[in-house]
Structure formats: C-alpha cells, structure tokens
Amino acid sequence: MEPATTAKGRYSQLTSDRSTFLTRAQDCAELTIPSLLPRTQGTGVTLPTPYQGMGAKGVNNLSAKLLQALLPANQSFFRFQVDDNTLDELSGDDAMRSKVLEAMGSMERIVGVQIESTATRAPLFECLKHLIVTGNGLLYLKPDNSLKFYRLDKYVVKRDPAGNLIECVVEEVVHPEALPENIRKIAAASPINGTANRVHLYTWIKRKGDFFEVHQECMDTMIPKSKGKWPVDKAPFMALRWASVDGEDYGRGHVEEYIGDLRSLEGLTAAIVEGSAAAAKVLFLVNPNGVTQESTVSDSPNLAVRSGVATDVSVLKVEKFNDFRVALDTITQITQRLAQAFLIVSSITRDAERVTAEEIRLMAAELESALGGVYTILAQEFQLPYVRRLVFQLQKQGKLPELPPNTVTPVVVTGLDALGRGHDLQNLMQAAQVVKAALGEQAMQRNVIETDFINRVFTALSVDQKGLVKTPDQIAAENQANAKQNMINTLGPEAMKSFAQQQQQGAPVAA
Question: What is the pTM of this model?
Fold first, then answer.
C-alpha cells in the first residue's frame, strides 16, 4: 500500500491496523474504568456501569504505585554518570572528583525542581491508568516543560521490527480561533466545517535517519512554521506501551492479561446482586380457599387483631442460599487473585492473629518484583527519553549548562526497591557495614576518605551540600586553629608569644 500524501490520509490509513487493539482496549475499559476509553465519542455520553469495583480499585492502586516508582517524591529517579575515561583522569584528584560529583548532584536537583514545578504528575498518572487498561499511551513534552497525554483513539503509530517508533500521526480537535488566519479562512469556506466550531488538526512525525521530522496539517494544508526536527534520542513525543509483543505496533495492557477473571467476577457479581434483590423481596401468599382474606393481610396495620388462620398465609422463599454460597466463594477466590495481580497489599496478609510488618513487607516486595519487566520497559520508553528531552530543553532555555558530549549521560535505575539514588545510598551503607564487620572500625577510618564518603551520602540523598558541608579549605583552617589552641593550652600564652616573636625575627627556636 502506497503511503498517503496528507496527514489526514495517513491517519485514516493506519487506523485499520489499530482497530483490533482499540476494540480490545475498550473491552478492558468497560470492566474497569469505562470513562478511560469509551466506545462513543463526545461529551455527555452514557457509559456502562460495572457491577464490581475491583477493576477500578486495582487500576487506581497500581497506577499510584507506578507513579511513585517512576517519579518518586523528593527524590531523583536518575543520576548523571561520568564515563570511565573521565573518571580515570579524576582518580588522582580527590578534590576535583568531589566537585564533579557535587556539580552533577546540583544539576539533578535543578531537573527535579523543574519536574515538581510543572504539570507532570497529573498527565503521567492518567497515562499510567491507560497503560494498565489499554496498554498504550502517548506523552508529549511541551515547550514549557509540562506533559500532555493522548489516549489510544487519538493517535496511530508504526514501529520497526525492533519496536522502535518510526512514524506517528496525532489527531486533535481544536477551535478554529487557535489556528493561523489562512487556515481559519479555509475552514470557514469548507461546506463541511463552515458551520462547525471545531476542526481536526493532525501532527505527523516521521523518522528520517537519526532524526524525527514533524509538521502539522489542518484541512489538508500545512500549518505555517510547524515544521521541526529533533534528534531521535531527544524527541518530545513518547509512545509508551505496557507490554510489547514482537511484530506488533501497539502494546498490550495489564488488564488484558486478567480479563478472564474480570469477566467472571462481573458475571458472578451481577448474578449475586440480582439474586439478592430477588431474595430481599417479601411477598405474602394467601390461600384462595382459606378463610383469611387478602385485604386482611394487606390492609392491617402493625399489632392489629384480625380473624384468620395462620396456615392460610405463607411467605415466598427463593431457596437459593447454597447456590449463592458457591458463587460467593468463587467471587472471593477471584477477588484475591485480582488483588494480588494489582498489588493490593491487603490481599497478601494471611489470616492469623499476629502478622509482622516485616512479613508483609517481604510478601509485598515479592509481588512487586513480578512487575520488574514493566519497570524496565517504562524506564527505556519513558524515564530515559523524558529526562534526555527535559535536559535538552533546559539547556536551550539556559537553565542548565551544556554538558560535554559523550562524557556525562543520565542513567535510570529501575525497580521499586532499586529506583533512584536511594539504591546508591543502600549500597554505600552496606559496604561500610561489611568493612566494619570484617576489618573493624579502625580499618574503616584508616582507608576511607571521610569528606568523599560524606559527599556521596549527601548526593545519594539529593541534599544540596552548598553551605552545609565544609570545604577542604575550611577544614584546613579549623585544623590549624585547633593545633594553635592546643599549643597554647600546652605551653601557655607567654611561651606562645615568645615563640611567635622568635619566628618573626628569624631566630632559631630552642629545643
């Protein structure tokens, strides 16, 4: 099939490849949070209401955990790493090495402040919910350093056999007033869009070698000054996937892996709810051949005295308690499996009188480690491209210094327990404990440089050292002052005064 010559045509051409994934994603959304990806577009659309809330609870819980893992509060999720050759050059200069580490820590804090001060967490949280449910989401880092999210029905992508993005077309519905004047005139003259207050804007991104080229079109006309070009590793568009499948352009969601349990839970919950409503209905039956009248039962107030025979009146019973019990036991088993799949901690607490906090922590860590592959994908497709692009934009805005090419690069550590600089601190403290236990406290003091150790601890905790940690000059000055004070205390003020005069005169000092 020949590629389309317009962005709108290319978007329509690629929607057929997306249709299967879109339908599956909508099925998953209906069982969890239907508003994430409704089948019908527009405002005020009536959405289906699931009988169970386990799907929505699991999605929100797992999204919150992932958000904390990808963007930990008050902690950097990446670090700047210096290449081995530069480190070898600095190995003999401890002061310069400490300054380099301090400078990299300062740059990390600048990037962290930028992340916290812009609209980053809200769109990322929305994107994570879509990744869990639909398996796909598109993020765009805007020029003001904030993020914008596009759901699956707003874009199409094409990937190479290795899974790398080679083409993307985004469809947006905008007001004509937001477009240039020449595009507004074309839209007003169009018989289709002349009376409409919305028009379709298409953004077409294509990979050419080591660069992405982009332009925007509306009414099959290119938007002036919309053409752009970015290096592949610094592109602002990030097409994310939850789980990648070889040869597929789109990802698969977490919900899709458990859609069987969700459907079973939905059906059983609906049966229990409807059956319980039927069982809760109270219906009196009166024997038509008895002496008790129907009106006597229906019209008599409470505690009234009436003539009649008790055996003439009976209550309708469903007699389905055992059947409900089987369904309820099945619901309990399915709910527990889903709770574990969505990392709900309450699902792992065993039924016992005493359950220790350490036991719960270990079981939770075991469940979270099962999603290590997901963290890896998100690190490669979101965290690393995001921080590269953000650093690139901050350098263009003059908020970060230009880094030497191929010398200082950002590195991301993935996994819930090994994320961010806390992993470095844990390794540092563990190494200190091992050395102390094996060789003793004195060996630790003899062989470890205190200032460098303190600098690394503060860097791992992302604490600004300026004005807090003493510089080598300050330490030397304090040592000299302490030595002088010790001599005064030992020899006395008069002897120190005589000693100073002799030094000024150049006379030899008596032993």
Answer: 0.75
